[in-house]
Amino acid sequence: MTGLEATRAALRELEGRPFTAIGRAATLVWLTFGDDVPWVDHRGEHTVRPEMSLHLQCRWRLLNGVSTMLQEGDLYVSGARAGAGFEAGGDIGTSRFDDRVRTVTELIAADVPVVDHVRIGDEFDLQLMLSSGTSLEVFPAGRPEWEDWRFLSSGEERAHYVVENGSVFKV
């Protein structure tokens, strides 16, 4: 089985799973799917984490029909609190992503969409179609030594699929 075929097979596990959350860590955007599952973290503490997640570091957009709800470029545009000063425990400013993700989070909470179909093209471009009429499109940049996206599935013996520069490897 080629890397592309293995990646397609792994991501088919998303089909039928609920899309539960979206957020970011700096410019890495994460999306979670499925139920929370028990997990032991690197300190040995018992916790829970999402069953599956997708990390994006390339161009992407989240559409509702033909309207863009959120996109990669929103990470780099000032948000409503752009001029906020630093206060311990307070907001230190936002991007447009932070402003818009609130609306997306409310929509997810109101009607938890389920992944209907996953499509991965020959260049590892990715599309997730959701039951709510929403879709996620991911466009790898193909930059050497730069991770485009990563699929993580919780559980023992589960590989992570990392797409980088037009190819995939398992971690």
Query: What's the count of strands?
Result: 11
Put simply, the count of helices is 2
Rounded to an integer in angstroms, the radius of gyration calculated over CA atoms is 17 Å
On the 0 to 100 scale, the average pLDDT is: 87
**Quaternary structure:** single chain
What percentage of amino acids are in beta strands? 35-45%
Describe the model.
The strands form two sheets. Strands 1-2-3-9-10-11 form a six-stranded antiparallel β-sheet. Strands 5-4-8-7-6 form a five-stranded antiparallel β-sheet. The chain is mainly beta. It is built from two helices and eleven strands; from the N terminus they run αβββββαββββββ. It has helices at residues 3-11, 96-110, and strands spanning 19-25, 28-40, 46-56, 59-64, 67-71, 115-120, 126-130, 134-139, 147-153, 161-164, 167-170. 25% of the residues are buried.
Give the SSE layout.
Blueprint: H1 3-11, E1 19-25, E2 28-40, E3 46-56, E4 59-64, E5 67-71, H2 96-110, E6 115-120, E7 126-130, E8 134-139, E9 147-153, E10 161-164, E11 167-170
Top keywords for this entry?
single chain, 171 residues, mainly beta, six-stranded antiparallel β-sheet, five-stranded antiparallel β-sheet, 2 helices, 11 strands
The gist of it:
This protein is mainly beta and 171 residues long. Helices cover 14% and strands 43% of the residues.
